[in-house]
Each structure stands twice: as structure tokens, then as C-alpha cells.
Amino acid sequence: HTKNSGRNSHSFFQKSMNANAQEQLQLMHDLRLAIERNELRLHYQPKFTAPSGPVSGFEALVRWERPGSGMLSPAVFLPLAEKTGLILPMGEWVLNEACRQLSEWHRQGHQEWSVAVNLSALQFEQPDLVEKVVDIITRHQIPAEKLTLEVTETTAMLNPDVSVAILDQLTDLGVKASIDDFGTGYSSLLYLKRLPASELKIDRAFINELTTNNEDASIVSAIIALGQTLNLKVVAEGVETVEQQAFLSRLGCDTLQGFLLGRPMTPAQIGDRISSDWPGHVIPATELEDVK
Ligand code: C2E
Ligand code: MG
Ligand code: MG
Ligand code: MG
């Protein structure tokens, strides 16, 4: 490298950084307006009682239909929403919309279905979370036990004592709690025992190579055994093959979720499925999500 090319690449780097910063700024500006402009969408991914059904409920997953950009995945805008605090109004919108949708499904006769909503750390620790949850389930008249709140293991273990207190209040209402992405954080088993959760969700990372990697197989069977010991339902996320489905079912995993059984989809697509062949195993290519 000559001195000159070094300087050029430096200024090139700065320019692209500026372009990126500019983009982030624009994204933040647009995201702020996305809620009032009604650009947020929820897609729902089914959860199946192992081994192959029935559907027990759905996880609500947020998307942003940004004009000119198409349907954006949470990976694109959630980090920004968390950094700026926009996750709070956004999360409230998600919670309300998921409960509204559930009440609609219940009215249509699917009273056994539940809905799961993801909470970020900031949301989980907001002082009026419990109050907001009460407001929303009252507004939509849904039975508390049909709402599950998913918090990641990492979030739950940030302030374990606080988490226990919050989850105590939520479970007193009857709302269920799920520890998401389990196995990727650092749970103290002592706290895990005290956490009033009703579900462990094994992270996708362990499911990927479940049937080809002995370590992953051992970890997954240990988590399932732990869940059974602690009286927690165990959910596997990211189930993509029939081999994984069979293996998990054999180990006693309660609930399966993944592209094999159902992609995240719109309520309209769910409506189409119920009237046809659900629970089928392979989702036709036309139903693949088009998310960036
Ligand atoms: P998560 O809660 O662990 O959700 C599972 C993610 O894995 C979803 O990605 C889902 O589409 C994807 N997935 C499900 N099955 C499979 C599979 O078989 N294979 C593969 N490769 N992926 C699968 P998505 O929708 O992009 O969401 C990513 C993360 O964003 C979520 O992880 C959750 O942490 C967060 N998130 C999504 N919606 C919300 C929300 O409304 N609020 C908050 N706070 N976070 C959300
Ligand atoms: Mg989740
Ligand atoms: Mg997860
Ligand atoms: Mg995950």
C-alpha cells in the first residue's frame, strides 16, 4: 500500500460510513412515523403440539412495510428501535394488535389458540408493563392464559430479581411467560428454578444440526430433561426437517415451531390454511415470506 492509496481508502471508508449514518438517520425518522402511518404488520408463525399437530397457537412477528423498501424484517429495524426507545410504542402496538387478532380468531371458533408476543429488554422492564397488559387483554376480552410473553434468556437474566418480580405479577394475572432463545444466555439454574415461566424455547442454533451433531443432540436432550424436571413446557424453534421433528418428538419436546411445519404468515394465509389441509407438513413455495 502506498501512502496515497491508504488515504484514498480511508476517505472511501468515511464516505460509506457517512452514507450509512445518513441511511440510519432516515430509517429512524421513518420508523418514528411507521406506527401512525400504519406500516407495521404482524406475521404469525404456528406452534404445533409435537409430533405433528394440532396447532396450539401462533407467535406474532413484527414486520415493517416501508414504502419503497418492501417488507422489512425485524433484523433491519429492531436494533434501531431498541437504541432509540421507539421499541416502547412499537411493542405496545404489537401487543395490542396480536391480542386483537387473537380475539378475532376466538370469535371465529378457535378458542384453543393462544398468541405469543416477543418483548425486548426495555419493554420488559418498563414500570407500567403489567398495567398495559391488563388494559389490552381487558379491551380485547381474551383469557389471560391465552397470552404468552416471550423474553429471551439474556433479558430474563439481566436483572434476575427484577425478572422474577415482573413475571410473578404477570403470572398472577394468568399470563404465561416463555424463555426464548434458551441456551444462548447464561442462566443460573437457581434463578431458572425461581422464574415463574411456563415454557422454555430452545434456540434455533441447537436445532440446526441436531440430527448430525452429537453435542447438539446432547444439549437438546438435556434442555428437554431440565424443562420436564422444572415442570416447563419445552418448545423447539427452527425445526426445518422431518428428522428433527421426529428426534425432538421422541425426546419428549412438547411443541414444535419451524419452517417445516409453518412459516410466519398473514392472518389471511392462516384463514386459507384452516379451510384446507392444515396441519400439512410442507408449506407451498407460494407461501414463502418475502421479507428483506
Ligand atoms: P425469535 O423470537 O426467536 O423468533 C424466531 C425467528 O426465527 C423469527 O425471525 C422466525 O421467522 C425465524 N424462524 C422461525 N422458524 C424458522 C426456521 O425453521 N428456520 C429459520 N432459519 N428461521 C426460523 P424474525 O421474524 O425475523 O424475528 C427475529 C427476531 O426478532 C425474533 O426472534 C425476536 O427476537 C425479534 N422480534 C420479532 N418480532 C418482534 C416483536 O414484535 N417485538 C420484539 N421485541 N421482538 C421481535
Ligand atoms: Mg420469540
Ligand atoms: Mg427464539
Ligand atoms: Mg431466536
Attribute tags:
alpha/beta; 12 helices; 18% strand; globular; binds ligand C2E; binds magnesium ion; Bifunctional diguanylate cyclase/phosphodiesterase
Write a compact overview of the structure shown.
With 292 residues, the chain is of the alpha/beta class. The protein has helices at residues 3-34, 74-84, 87-107, 121-124, 129-139, 153-156, 160-173, 189-194, 204-207, 214-229, 242-251, 267-274, and strands at 40-49, 55-66, 70-72, 114-118, 147-152, 176-182, 199-202, 233-236, 255-256.
SSE map:
Elements: H1 3-34, E1 40-49, E2 55-66, E3 70-72, H2 74-84, H3 87-107, E4 114-118, H4 121-124, H5 129-139, E5 147-152, H6 153-156, H7 160-173, E6 176-182, H8 189-194, E7 199-202, H9 204-207, H10 214-229, E8 233-236, H11 242-251, E9 255-256, H12 267-274
Parallel strand pairs: 2-4, 4-5, 5-6, 6-7, 7-8, 8-9
Antiparallel strand pairs: 1-2, 1-9, 2-3
Helix pairs in contact: 1-2, 3-5
The structure holds ligand C2E and magnesium ion (MG) (3 copies).
Residues 59, 118, 150, 180 line the site of one magnesium ion (MG).
